[in-house]
Specification:
Elements lengths: L4 H8 L9 H16 L9 H16 L9 E6 L2 E9 L1 H27 L6 H17 L6 H19 L6 H32 L4 H7 L8 H18 L9 H7 L2 H26 L4 H25 L8 H22 L6 H30 L13 H4 L1 H15 L5 H16 L3 H25 L14 H19 L2 H6 L6
Antiparallel strand pairs: 1-2
Helix pairs in contact: 2-3, 2-5, 3-4, 3-5, 4-5, 4-11, 4-14, 4-19, 5-6, 6-7, 6-11, 7-9, 7-10, 8-11, 9-11, 10-11, 10-13, 11-13, 11-14, 12-13, 12-18, 13-14, 13-17, 13-18, 14-16, 14-17, 14-19, 16-17, 16-18, 17-18, 17-19
């Protein structure tokens, strides 16, 4: 008599869709290869590690193209192919494009930064950590169960701590890494406790199953479920740097290597907001009456405190350009929260989420461009103060014009049409959801932000003090500035393409 064991074993074996998981896998594999190669590559040829990493991120980004033909899922529940841990749908691909494209631009900035600071930053470890973080960030939008979501979140975050504190002998860098680490560990602990409560009350970690079961939780477990929802939301609010969980941002950005500050400002935000979208809109739509008002209040508070913090920098005589961008990024996080909050009230949640993703794409392109020009100025001005940008047009006309364009995009003023379009899209999401008070708060904050953006822009074209200092632009830095500039200008010419691209099909 034959044993049933082989057939049972066969039923538990799953086939892996390697094409679906290719983008994060390529980033992880190249990271490991670079770490091993660092042991054998001679010191004068370390630059090869950087270009290998750039090529790996470019290949991972290009591998998104074959996935556009339809949704793909893998690591599915045995007996139910519709419940999976990894799904490469439209939402996943758009966020992965933002993450991998942003990591690629950060890598181009890093090639130049490492060449200038080779003694302070170990190259092999740097590239391994950057690629590992990018792999985790690319995995996160595809995660469709809470365990995979938390693992992806930590894979994206843990290498980032080390990157922030990687400068040898730099006290600011170590302090920034410690603040970042403590805030993130707290967020993870709170999230894990919330997730454990949700699992205990629903008996599943899969997002779609939680959405079904959390509505009919046994009466004795309802308090546990409610507590789990609140703790999970608080944990992800930490990850998005929403106020009052933003305290680590300014010091971390200033203390980190500038390419890592640029990376955190875009990819770090994408990770936090993606996780928040998956937890709220996909897993907990029945708790919209809880997370909707909470996120609306966080959005108003975050944009107001962020812009107020940026204005306070004006009172400091030698305020840092990177610190100003850090406070600006806190304010921008508030705008990104608006459509997610609106999804709780709107009859078309997909449109609201599309507004957040569209704004994230715009913000990612122009903010990385602003950091790229900041990296150029920082080559000759180590303090990188806003005052150092005075007369930049006289010495470097094209970078100055592009920085002015990026700042106008962030402010939402022509000719930065893509910035204006993105802000109108977010504003419309609030109005359509009958959140008029939040739309008013946003409009007031946009006006407040005009002051510091326009002041910095005007400084670029003022007469320089003394002889204009010429800025030599290395090829990788030129590529990063050019790519962000072309993308921003092209999208300003056809802003409707962003909404078409961000038609996520999440639901």
């Amino acid at each position: 008599m034959s044993s049933p064991a082989p057939s049972l074993a066969a039923s538990l074996v799953q086939s892996v869709d390697w094409l679906a998981i290719a983008p994060p896998t390529i980033a992880a594999v190249v990271g490991l290869a670079v770490l091993v190669a660092d042991l054998f590559v001679a010191e004068h040829r370390k630059a090869l590690l950087g270009w290998t990493s750039v090529a790996g991120l470019a290949a991972a980004t290009l591998l998104l193209l074959p996935l556009l033909d339809g949704d793909r899922s893998t690591f599915c529940l045995t007996g139910d192919a519709a419940v999976c841990s990894y799904t490469a749908d439209r939402f996943t691909l758009v966020i992965q494009f933002l993450v991998l494209g942003g990591a690629l631009l950060a890598a181009l900035l890093s090639v130049t930064a490492l060449k200038d600071a080779r003694r302070e930053l170990p190259e092999g470890e740097y590239w391994f950590l950057l690629l590992s973080s990018a792999a985790g960030a690319a995995l996160l939008p595809a995660s469709r169960d809470l365990a995979t979501l938390i693992v992806a979140l930590e894979v994206a975050s843990l290498p980032a701590f080390a990157l922030v504190g990687l400068k040898h002998g730099d006290r600011r860098s170590s302090e920034a890494a410690l603040k970042f680490f403590l805030s993130s560990v707290t967020a993870t602990a709170v999230s894990l406790m919330g997730i454990s409560f949700l699992y205990a009350s629903t008996g599943t970690l899969y997002l779609t199953q939680i959405a079904d079961r959390v509505q009919s939780v046994d009466g004795q477990l309802q308090t546990l479920a409610h507590t789990g929802v609140v703790l999970t939301l608080v944990g992800f609010a930490f990850k998005t740097a929403a106020v009052p969980f933003h305290f680590w941002v300014p010091d971390t950005y200033v203390g980190a290597p500038l390419p890592i500050a640029a990376y955190l400002s875009v990819i770090g935000k994408a990770v936090g907001f993606t996780g928040l979208i998956l937890v709220t809109v996909v897993a907990l739509p029945s708790y919209a009456d809880v997370w909707g008002p909470a996120l609306a209040a966080l959005a108003a508070l975050t944009m107001t405190v962020g812009n107020a913090g940026a204005l306070r920098q004006q009172a400091t005589r030698a305020y840092s350009a990177v610190r100003l961008l850090a406070w600006s990024s806190v304010g921008q996080a508030g705008y990104l929260l608006v459509p997610i909050a609106a999804a709780a009230y709107s009859g078309d949640a997909e449109k609201s989420i599309g507004s957040t993703v569209a704004y994230a794409l715009m913000y990612g392109a122009v903010n990385l461009g602003a950091f790229a020009v900041a990296a150029l100025v920082g080559r000759t001005k180590s303090l990188n103060r806003v005052a150092d940008y005075r007369g930049l047009y006289a010495s470097s006309p094209l970078p100055a014009l592009l920085l002015a364009f990026f700042l106008l995009c962030l402010a939402g003023l022509p000719p930065g049409i893509i910035g204006l379009f993105a802000k109108v899209t977010v504003f419309s999401a609030a109005v359509d959801a009958s959140l008029g008070w939040l739309a008013v708060v946003m409009a007031v904050n946009v006006v407040i932000a005009l002051f510091y953006y326009l002041q910095w822009t005007a400084l670029l074209f003022r007469a320089p003090e003394g002889e204009p200092e010429k800025h030599r632009v290395p090829a990788p830095l030129t590529a990063a500035i050019a790519l962000t500039g072309v993308l921003g200008i092209a999208l300003s010419g056809a802003p409707q393409l962003v909404l078409r691209f961000t038609d996520t099909g999440l639901f």
